[in-house]
Amino acid sequence: MNKDKKKQKIDEKSKVEDLEEFREYPEGKGLTTDQGVKVNHTDDSLKAGKRGPTLMEDFHFREKITHFDHERIPERIVHARGAGAHGYFECYESMSEYTMAKFLQEPGKKTPVFVRFSTVAGFRGSADTARDVRGFATKFYTEDGNYDLVGNNIPIFFIQDAIKFPDLIHSVKPEPDNEIPQASTAHDTFYDFVVSAPETTHMIMWALSDRAIPRSYRMMEGFSVNTFRFVNMEGKGRFIKFIWKPLLGVHSLVWDESMKLGGEDPDYHRRDLYEAIDNGDYPEYELYVQMVEEEDEHNFDFDILDPTKHWPEELITPKKIGKLVLNRKPDNFFAEVEQVAFCPGNVVPGIDFSNDPLLQGRLFSYIDTQLIRLGGPNFHEIPINRPLAPVHNNQRDGYHRHTINTGKTSYFPNTLGDNCPKPVPREDGGYVHYMEKVEGKKIRDRSDKFKDFYSQARSFYNSMSEPEKQHIISAFHFEVGKVESKEVRQKMVDQFANVDKGLAVAIAKGVGVSPPPNGADSSTADNFPSFSMENTVKDTVKTRKVAILAENGFNYDELVKVKDALEDAGANSEIISMYLGMIKADTGQEIEVDKNYISTASTQFDAVYVPGGKESVETLKKRGDVIHFVNEAFKHCKAIAAVSEGMDLLIESDITGFSISKGEITSDKGVVTTVDNTQIKNFAKSFIEAIAVHRHWNRGTKEEIPA
């Protein structure tokens, strides 16, 4: 017993050491077969003469080709496109009052984690920036075993019961007759499903908001979606939901930007995540939990077990309980990101389930999926899925078994093996399900409160800022405008009249159908500030990317001082020029160019800065791709800044937001300028504040900007 406890403590120390036996380091090593036989030639197969047939006795050729032929496994049906990272979770305070979960008992305790972010609808080769729900799945390697918190960046879901999940996904995937469109909901079958299943209404509001086009994985929330339970040592249970909140705030792309990035850099979110880790700008999130006492279960206008309903933070206050830090990239994308297997049924003592009907189905479906994807029942033995806690049970054999089980017995009870492995009492950490009284007649139906499909959708729309409302309307115009069936387009308008008549009228105008004669007024609904991204963190520019446009003859002092100020504030900047290499300042100093215009675009930056220098600016003014760069950034409502002659480029670009009158500069709408380069410090401070706002929606008719 003491020996086992000592081994468990060693196993818990470090995930890196625990998995070291599975790592392979090729540097400086000789080539071998899978059997360890050294290979002296791998460029030509074994032949009967130089021009003769290949001989099948060439075991190296056969092994190499056979392995290659079997390298692909089925991709996930949903969440196929993803990226992942290692890190740790640090507990802030003891949660022993609420849960037995050991990783939540001790302030400062750190638990290794692996996180996978993903899109839902697209195949593995689709673009990161498609309008879609994002998965946010976290595997905690705890001393009690693995705990999987499997959620999304939107707090609710399309359907209320898992039995409808195949129908939802069949409708959202490319249409079966032509395999079009890829990674997009903008087509007939999806919206035919939406108008046929009004329970989707609330989720559609979220999915057509800016939440579905996040700026990065590092700037989106994560939600457990389903209702779970905390259970403490006394057996008391509470209903809970989890929320991950990014320390950088919740920020989005704009639609035009997301579509362009899909072509310019389809790996945009994956690249952003890994570059941040490489730069030491580790993504950080704080974990919150919302709790509802069991006696308060029915005290809300909505059913807390309904996965299409959100728990507004204004009604159920989240409690901050810890922090997640992602600080290490995968060593091998396939071995870790592709083979990691999550399941909401992977819980530890102190965390249990509710009767949420979507969750109940997920408990079956996730395991069932892995059986075919990962080749059988032993997928938990793949290194990325292995728990740090010791594993002892009577499961045996099957495809890809890694464990070499010793002993004579593989059953319980037994006398030949002293009844080992034997059940563990609750007081020693054995999992005991929450004792919930369950009774009722067998019936295919749902709670009456589940049948309210529109109240929270109204609250969501009423909680949006005016720019956010306009973005939702534009999203409807794009999505429903792609639907060929006029009948479905009309039904969409009629359905969303139940949310807000003004919204439905605006949708109808954009998609060529009749406006509704009647409809709801969302302005009378609840307003929850936590629903709106306008109320997120806007006091930091940490990790933001700024493009500095310069050519030969730039003002060295202006460029360097602003670049240094940006980096001191935590932002990253890159020099963009016509060609890679070095460019020379007006005083002779040289600086290296990071990117040229053909390999990048304004969509890949959060702000644009143009330093002065007459020769540099005159060159910039003559280039159409530079004018487009500035115009596009302005159209996307990003902060733009220029010093001295740099303002001439803004004038040439014909953007608005500043005016020159009697030698005085007036700036607003996120355009920061100065003619006095002795005021660079104040200028840089104003520019940094403008970047922190994220988007300057007050730019009016951006459609008039030629970008």
Automatic annotation (TrEMBL):
SUPFAM superfamilies to which the protein is assigned, alphabetical: Class I glutamine amidotransferase-like, Heme-dependent catalase-like
Domain (Catalase core) ranges: 32-420
SMART domains: Catalase
Protein name as annotated: Catalase
Class of this enzyme: oxidoreductase
Cellular component GO terms, alphabetical: cytosol
Biological classification of the source: Archaea, Methanobacteriati, Methanobacteriota, Methanomada group, Methanobacteria
GO molecular function, one term: catalase activity
Catalytic activity, reaction form: 2 H2O2 = O2 + 2 H2O
Organism in which the protein naturally occurs: Methanobacterium veterum
Listed cofactors: heme
GO BP term (any one): response to oxidative stress
PANTHER family: CATALASE, CATALASE-B
Record-listed E.C. numbers: 1.11.1.6
Comp. bias (Basic and acidic residues): 1-27
Entry similarity comment: Belongs to the catalase family.
InterPro entries cross-referenced by the UniProt entry: Catalase, Catalase_AS, Catalase_clade2, Catalase_clade2_helical, Catalase_core, Catalase_haem_BS, Catalase_immune_responsive, Catalase_large_C
Domain of life: Archaea
Region described as Disordered: 1-50
Key words, A-Z: Heme, Hydrogen peroxide, Iron, Metal-binding, Oxidoreductase, Peroxidase
